């Protein structure tokens, strides 16, 4: 248990979600194992005694997430919950309740209803019904979704000429500058040069590209996926796999569907397959770069009849410069992105509304990875232009 | 009441009479429906013999049944198992549950024993007990043909008449209450079939909120590769698991002496689909449609049947699997128990059964003739009879399904502690150990598994109370189903509240099993898994299970579950869960 807690504590820090020393993480089997014993442990013990759960995580996020959380929590005082509209939140978490303080009475009823709770000035409390990894994933998702929501809200305020508070302006500019500087400083690029003829070469290239995608923060927690076309097979990351831990977690899917051993393949396999069937590409990288997601969710068509259902119903030809934006949901359902994405994948890549970016490479992941970083930088630039008059 | 009808149909076959019961609201609050309500009505008589007229046979729906809540077209059938002696419930699909709700009943309690073979015909509130003497020994399709009348139907076949301890109940011809021999309980009551038709509607508290909850669940279903992916259950049925268990080297082979079947690649779900051009079917109101039916209308085998009638028996012809499945379905036998019993027979005889042997022995079991007279009693009794008890791959006398526990340690613990015996569905650790849902866990590690098994048992029990299909929980969670439950019933509920109902349901079953003498010695696996390795290879090592680690995990499970060190219920936990106050 200690090993598992240490692993996810390290991930929270490495991914810039938390600062060292402020993470309280408990895993529960027959007894509770804590990573440390600050005073809040007593409250968390009382909460988990009243719930059936396997892990609980409390931490104040690192900046800018902490300031963003506090701003959103303050504005959610009347409704009692934050309602981000990005794909992760819409699909898996729904909404994030806000508890006024870290007391059993305030937290417990909310945590019984949802996977995570925001406590202003204290941070995020998340739990995992089955494992500690779930608590980590939900924590990470709340950071991602609140980040996206804040910048989308501010983007709309800029579009509509709405005034922002001083604190909102401060957070906007400091967070944006921080993120831009981080992204501009990325110099990493996958080292493996394709095309790959050998299975082990292709797998190694996927493992490397996946790791770099996480290290450059182009994807959060265990979302995102990656694939390579090798002859009559598609190699693709497994569902629920972290892109920085892909070794042994890549499924081999025959193009003719003659084996179902890839039942555990990423939910986006239909989209990857459709792209391979229609384009002469060998590599596909799907990440969730934050400003790609943010810019996809800001649309000037105020009177559009589909507003509120853009993720499935948007019928406009939308672009961020040369990059198309399409609707579509996760997986193979009737509104699945596999129906919308492949037909627009002719250029550097495409963004799925509120979800993430797909890029391709003709021979290897170098091209796909470069496109991913470049497009994210372009989206940051476009966003800066949008909010340039906000002071 | 919204969601529920508030009415239970109680039928006494000895008197050929029926009355309507109206359970108190607190009964619904603490049990919800399905497995919870059935357990509530079983418990007062749980110590009776399975063939006693006092022993009830229970059919229970839940509050979501008959509503647009996804995957809710199911019900629970429950009684005491003739095979295991445990409390035994099965979750079954088809239209029966929905029609029962529309007829105005949340459940049926059947007691007594009819003086002659009978059927029960329910049309809305009208209940008729009809003569079924001519159906004695009939096959399932014949019973359905002669009694169906477009109604939903639950029927037994000839295996139950022959005294098979693993006789099943067929619902609408394609759905089976398979495990534990509840078909024999039905035969013991001289009951051949029940048909039900209803014309009413289920009252729903908030249609708009239910539509939102439904959308949340369907979005998750669509996002699930296991349910909706191109290799998922919707495309290939549960047979989609076949290649995966082979690739992970946990496919029980040659009566669990190996974990890899060399000819598996030619026996996978893709070949069935290609050969039989199977189409999708499903339970009422389900969008997953995991049931597969061939072009001639034949029911395609489920994963367990595919695996056990191939790898477990060394059979490499698909046609034999199809034929074996047809015999089991037509005569009304559980395919898992039938295959494991035949595998036990083959090991003891020291033979590999030919396709002809397999089909002949199945017919012999269903007719109780020749070696079938003993084989119909299941693997454990057969192995005991032959003086080779170690050849029976059972837990609490229930034959093990198609996941070798040496390849998934959560599954090992789950098999051992499951209330109805060696069952994969109580906790279904394959979800996280193999399918990576909701997250992946280390399948060769016991650490943390005790709590995961306990919690997932509770979650699945809650699903069985609602009643919802447990496959949907590869995608959705009780969070979304709490939303649906609240929308249907108007009762404010959280996921944690539902888990608590699930915990009460499981613990009640523990209480019933304790009444019948079950202790920690029954929460165990066959020795083979602790002493012999599986089939290592391809970088995957399948050693024997470390018994000390297993016992430590079981000890942790007892602690988490609130049982004593012998696996027995405690007074304090029984009181805490309110089970001591239950009076059915």
Structure description:
The complex is a heterodimer of chains A (391) and B (584). Chain A has 391 residues and is an alpha+beta fold. Helix content of chain A is 40%, strand content 19%. Chain A contains twelve helices and 15 strands. In chain A, strand 12 (318-320) and strand 13 form a beta hairpin. In chain A, helix 10 crosses helix 12. The mean pLDDT of chain A is 93. In chain B, helix 20 crosses helix 22. Chain B is built from 25 helices and 16 strands. In chain B, a hairpin with a 6-residue loop joins strand 4 and strand 5 (87-92). Chain B is α+β, with helices and mostly antiparallel strands. Chain B is globular. Chains A and B meet through helix 4, helix 5, helix 6 and helix 9 of A and helix 7, helix 8, helix 10, helix 20 and helix 22 of B.
Explain briefly what this protein structure is.
The complex is a heterodimer of chains A (391) and B (584). With 391 residues, chain A is of the alpha+beta class. Chain A has helices spanning 2-14, 40-49, 65-75, 87-93, 104-113, 132-159, 166-184, 199-215, 269-278, 290-296, 310-313, 365-386; strands spanning 18-28, 32-34, 55-61, 81-82, 96-97, 116-119, 123-128, 225-230, 233-237, 250-254, 283-287, 318-320, 323-326, 349-352, 356-361.
């Amino acid at each position: 248990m200690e090993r598992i807690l240490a692993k996810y504590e390290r991930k929270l820090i490495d991914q810039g979600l938390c600062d060292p020393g402020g993470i309280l993480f408990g895993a529960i089997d027959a007894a509770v194992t804590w990573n440390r014993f600050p005073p809040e442990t007593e409250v968390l013990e009382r909460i988990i005694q009243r719930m059936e759960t396997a892990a609980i995580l409390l931490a104040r996020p690192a900046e800018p997430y902490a300031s963003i959380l506090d701003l959103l929590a303050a504005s959610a005082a009347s409704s009692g919950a934050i309602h981000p509209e990005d794909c992760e939140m819409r699909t898996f978490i729904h909404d994030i309740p806000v508890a006024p303080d870290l007391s059993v009475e305030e937290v417990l009823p909310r945590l019984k209803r949802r996977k995570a709770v925001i406590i202003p000035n204290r941070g995020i409390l998340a739990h995992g019904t089955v494992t500690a990894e779930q608590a980590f994933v939900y924590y990470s998702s709340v950071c991602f979704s609140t980040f996206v929501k804040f910048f989308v809200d501010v983007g709309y305020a800029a579009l509509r000429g709405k005034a922002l508070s001083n604190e909102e302006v401060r957070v906007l500019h400091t967070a944006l500058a921080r993120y831009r500087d981080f992204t501009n400083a990325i110099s990493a690029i996958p080292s493996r040069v394709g095309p790959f003829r050998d299975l082990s070469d292709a797998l190694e290239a996927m493992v490397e590209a996946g790791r770099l995608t996480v290290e450059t923060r182009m994807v959060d927690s265990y979302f995102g996926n990656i694939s390579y076309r090798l002859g009559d097979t598609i190699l693709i990351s497994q569902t629920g796999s972290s892109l920085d831990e892909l070794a042994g977690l890549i499924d081999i899917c025959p193009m003719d569907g003659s084996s179902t051993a890839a039942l555990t393949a990423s939910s986006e396999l239909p989209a990857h397959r459709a792209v391979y069937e229609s384009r002469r590409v060998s590599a596909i990288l799907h990440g969730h770069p934050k400003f790609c997601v943010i810019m996809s969710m800001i649309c000037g068509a105020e009177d559009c009849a589909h507003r509120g259902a853009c993720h499935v119903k948007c019928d406009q030809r939308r672009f961020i410069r040369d990059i198309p934006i399409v609707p579509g949901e996760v997986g193979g359902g009737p509104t699945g992105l596999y129906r919308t994405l492949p037909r627009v994948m002719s250029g550097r890549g495409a963004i799925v509304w509120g979800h993430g970016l797909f890029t391709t490479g003709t021979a290897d992941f170098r091209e796909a990875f470069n496109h991913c970083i470049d497009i994210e930088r372009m989206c940051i630039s476009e966003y800066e232009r949008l909010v340039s008059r906000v002071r | 009441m919204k969601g529920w009808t508030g009415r239970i149909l109680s039928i006494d076959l000895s008197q050929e009479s029926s009355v309507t019961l109206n359970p108190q609201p607190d009964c619904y609050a603490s049990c919800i429906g399905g497995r919870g309500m059935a357990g509530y009505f079983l418990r007062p008589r749980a110590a009776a013999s399975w063939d006693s007229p006092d022993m009830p046979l229970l059919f229970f729906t839940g509050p979501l049944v008959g509503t647009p809540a996804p995957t809710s077209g199911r019900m629970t059938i429950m009684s005491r198992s003739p095979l295991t002696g445990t409390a035994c419930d099965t979750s079954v699909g088809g239209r029966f549950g929905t029609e029962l709700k529309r007829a105005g009943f949340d459940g049926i309690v059947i007691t007594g024993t009819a003086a002659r073979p009978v059927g029960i015909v329910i049309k809305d509130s009208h209940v008729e007990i009809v003569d079924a003497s001519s159906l004695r020994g009939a096959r399932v399709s014949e019973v359905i043909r002669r009694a169906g009348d477009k109604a939903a139907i639950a029927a037994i076949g000839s295996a139950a008449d022959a005294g098979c301890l693993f006789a099943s109940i067929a619902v609408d011809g394609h759905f089976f209450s398979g495990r534990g021999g509840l078909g024999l309980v039905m035969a013991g009551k001289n009951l051949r079939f029940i048909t039900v038709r209803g014309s009413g509607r289920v009252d729903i508290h908030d249609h708009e909120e239910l539509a939102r909850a439904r959308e949340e669940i369907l979005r998750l279903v669509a996002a699930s590769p296991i349910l909706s992916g191109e290799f998922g259950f919707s495309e290939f049925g549960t047979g989609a698991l076949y290649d995966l268990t082979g690739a992970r080297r946990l496919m029980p082979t040659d009566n669990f002496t190996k974990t890899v079947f060399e000819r598996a690649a030619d026996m996978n779900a893709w070949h069935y689909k290609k050969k039989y051009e199977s189409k999708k079917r499903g339970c009422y109101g389900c969008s997953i449609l995991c049931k597969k039916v061939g072009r001639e209308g034949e029911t395609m085998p489920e994963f367990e049947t595919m695996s056990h009638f191939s790898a477990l028996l060394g059979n490499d012809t698909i046609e034999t699997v199809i034929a074996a499945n047809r015999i089991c379905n037509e005569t009304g036998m559980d395919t898992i128990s039938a295959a494991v019993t035949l595998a036990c027979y083959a090991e003891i005889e020291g033979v590999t059964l030919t396709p002809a042997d397999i089909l002949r022995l199945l017919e012999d079991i269903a007719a109780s003739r020749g070696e079938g007279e003993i084989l119909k009693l299941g693997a454990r009794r057969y192995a005991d009879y032959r003086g080779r008890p170690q050849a029976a791959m059972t837990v609490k006398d229930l034959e093990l399904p198609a996941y070798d526990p040496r390849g998934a340690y959560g599954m090992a613990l789950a098999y051992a502690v499951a209330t109805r015996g060696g069952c994969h569905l109580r906790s279904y650790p394959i979800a996280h150990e193999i399918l990576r849902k909701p997250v992946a866990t280390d399948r060769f590690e016991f650490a943390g598994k005790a709590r995961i098994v306990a919690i997932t048992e509770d979650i699945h029990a809650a699903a069985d109370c609602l009643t919802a299909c447990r496959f949907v929980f590869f995608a959705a969670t009780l969070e979304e189903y709490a939303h649906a439950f609240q929308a249907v019933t108007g009762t404010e509920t959280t996921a944690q509240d539902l888990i608590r109902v699930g915990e009460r349901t499981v613990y009640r079953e523990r209480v019933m099993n304790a009444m019948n003498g079950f202790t920690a010695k029954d929460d165990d696996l066959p020795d083979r898994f602790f002493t012999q390795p599986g089939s290592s290879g391809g970088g995957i090592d399948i050693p024997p299970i470390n018994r000390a680690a297993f016992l430590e995990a079981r000890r942790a499970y007892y602690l988490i579950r609130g049982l004593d060190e012998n696996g027995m219920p405690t007074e304090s936990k029984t009181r805490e869960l309110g089970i001591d106050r239950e009076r059915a």
